[in-house]
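---------- Forwarded message ----------

FYI, see the Glycosyl transferase family 1 domain-containing protein record below. Original note from H. follows.
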Amino acid sequence: MGKQSSSWITMHKKRWPLMIFALFTLSTVMVFFMRSAFDSCHSTPSGTDNHFREANEVQKAPIHSVSQSQTPSIAPNPLYFMKSKLVLLVSHELSLSGGPLLLMELAFLLRGVGAQVIWITNQKPAEPDEVIYSLEHKMLDRGVQVLPAKGQSAIDTALKADLVVLNTAVAGKWLDAVLKENVQQVLPKVLWWIHEMRGHYFKLEYVKHLPFVAGAMIDSHTTADYWKNRTKERLGIRMPETYVVHLGNSKDLMEVAEDTVAKRALREHVRESLGVRNDDLLFAIINSVSRGKGQDLFLRSFYESLQLIQEKKLQVPSLHAVVVGSDMNVQTKFETELRKFVQEKKIQNCVHFINKTLTVAPYLASIDVLVQNSQARGECFGRITIEAMAFQLPVLGTAAGGTMEIVVNGTTGLLHPVGKGGITPLANNIVKLATHVERRLTMGKKGYERVKENFLEHHMSHRIALVLKEVLKKAKS
């Protein structure tokens, strides 16, 4: 999710109320950024063969998880070997969505070790766009060069680059459209970073060059298996050497998650703005509002959980559902359906729609349980899941996609089926966590421990570094 500024975290305690108010006010006017795509777990699925490798297996030895206390205070940056390398990053678009923002994060990690990084956006709207303008200037401020997608400068950069990273399957259209007769020279140094889980991305026009690149990097085993099988069965092509790289939380996000003063201030402010009490239980879904993210099924489960509590006369605090990712300016047909359901069931007082926001920390600090209800094949990774776990929140997730590789069912959260068949199981899980305080808190602590062991920025940097070394080696040979 959106990164939190680390500077305001260290400010003097008595300035907190003012700073929190300023931060939260700013967040409510910023455009929503949702990391929608990505996931991870303890073990590699049994169906994974030698063609498929966990990034930490590249050197034939696993990365041993280290806690912050075990990490040397001056640990060498695993990406330092990229110093002075020329890296071209090609994104299919530049927006506040998961894929582009994740590629920007890689750009900043590479700039941090002295790599020369050049960014190309393949698809841009004809009219000026405030989001694109803002993100490009953010990159320019951090030393990332921005080039037009087409033209001789783009071709020259691709030919000179030590490494070319194509971001998402759709970025494959850039190869033929721009490089043309130079494609074959560039393919041996291309790392294709894939995040998609939807079937409509399996088009030959997008991925016909996929078998010939140096490697593919995918965020979860589930997604990697899906791509391997689907490309073979539907398109008759094979995947290149494929590496599974689980993501990690940014240092800025972890600073907020581990600052009890910050969390308390954020919790109090958000709850006050929503009109809920400190003891009320908040179950939140934090994703862009769309049918694929399952907000409709979540609200049905939430309503059913209220019915169960009433029927069984359970003594629990007031329950609230929070939907973060709404669009107050342009209500889609789907969101209109959500609001109509809330009105019909007369649960307006305990359902809260929150506008799109770049800053999710205030909401993670203020809620009690995260609901990850992505449908169909689920999330490729679902970064909001590990961000919630960093805030010691249990996760109620769908048993699909990368969520199964992140959430340990019964330990860090509870899983339920996708589709309408998951409505009642999710409702029961909401009631379970509402009625068992100790279980809820224990799951949250276990989730935090799992993040510290597997899903931090240095874990992700280490895993990506191993992949980049392999790709550079192939490019030279």
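H. also flagged this: The chain has two domains: 80-248+459-475, 251-455.
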